[in-house]
């Protein structure tokens, strides 16, 4: 890191020796750019861009409807595929590129690249997936032998030849598919749902307290990866088992746990996650669409002026986001909810960690997000110089100033830092090399750094 900014170098140094448990959903992303070849493969839907996509996706026409709907709306989306259609795509279509995917895969990869010591669990671990990690030797996997958990190299944990594949269809402003033009730079994900992704981890579930004793925190995701056709019993029954595992994980003390939320179009699945899983988190990570879904699912009073992604950004949106986050945090009873929006990152909390730790985490996340957007991937700490080249968003600063005036607190260099709300401008890349995984990068980098500096691990206070 000889040429990296001194503040970023201090942040990266703070992560050395930080041990974090990351679970459950890792896969390989098959990346496809919207073009004529894709259009010739798919089948034209009845009302491109207007027709609500079915769930799960079961045909080329279903997939075309889903992609064009996301393009017209100008927002990212994810819908599960049936097993049969997932097999069809994998056998018939070639992606433009492949990379490590899934929230757990992306967050683990970043943690290892930044010098932390991740312990990752996922259900299917193939040689193909291991080859997608940038630093596979820096990642360990929990193995249970005679009631004791050992942390083994990924190469020693391969348990299948199969690989979970998610298809990521990326589009930029102006891209067209079946005469529908994209209004934003984002992506649609057609997600596979293997039966193994059922939130059961065999012997590890009963011994997971041993992991809790060995790590500084946990990044958990994948609670939306359930499929009713693969379950015995209800979503709630499966989520109750997963809730018991979370409680066992932290049974040895106050282990900080971050749960990364994700969209699912299954109303019953979302309701079960809200009631059973989310209240177990110390920190909940969301984007703007996920926040709106959570707010609606909770039945909270609708904001008078609801922010949308279809209209140009207005600074006053931050006030609505703040109110929605505050109401959700109180309803769920969690310590902190963090929002990653295009122009700013915002955290609402109650006696979670020192506000300065959260501020440093959000500022670090903005650099990581810009690096990911500009380069398509973060491959080493030195890459963060790329993110620093993008200035903090002026629109983000203006919005944060409105929020600061609303709560009666001052800003410092465009950031707001109080015991109950912290906000930091994002660093926006107008022409991103890729969009998938940026939210996961934000959540992982902010959570890791705030843990590191709070616990007094090497780095500036």
TrEMBL record:
**SUPFAM superfamilies named among the record's database cross-references:** Ribokinase-like
Q: Which Pfam families match?
A: ADP_PFK_GK
A GO molecular function assigned to this protein is: phosphotransferase activity, alcohol group as acceptor
Q: Which domain of life is it from?
A: Archaea
Organism of derivation = Natronosalvus rutilus
Q: What's any GO biological process attached to this entry?
A: glycolytic process
- Gene3D superfamilies xref list: 3.30.1110.20, 3.40.1190.20
Name-wise, this protein is: ADP-dependent glucokinase/phosphofructokinase
Q: Which UniProt keywords apply?
A: Cytoplasm, Glycolysis, Kinase, Magnesium, Metal-binding, Plasmid, Transferase
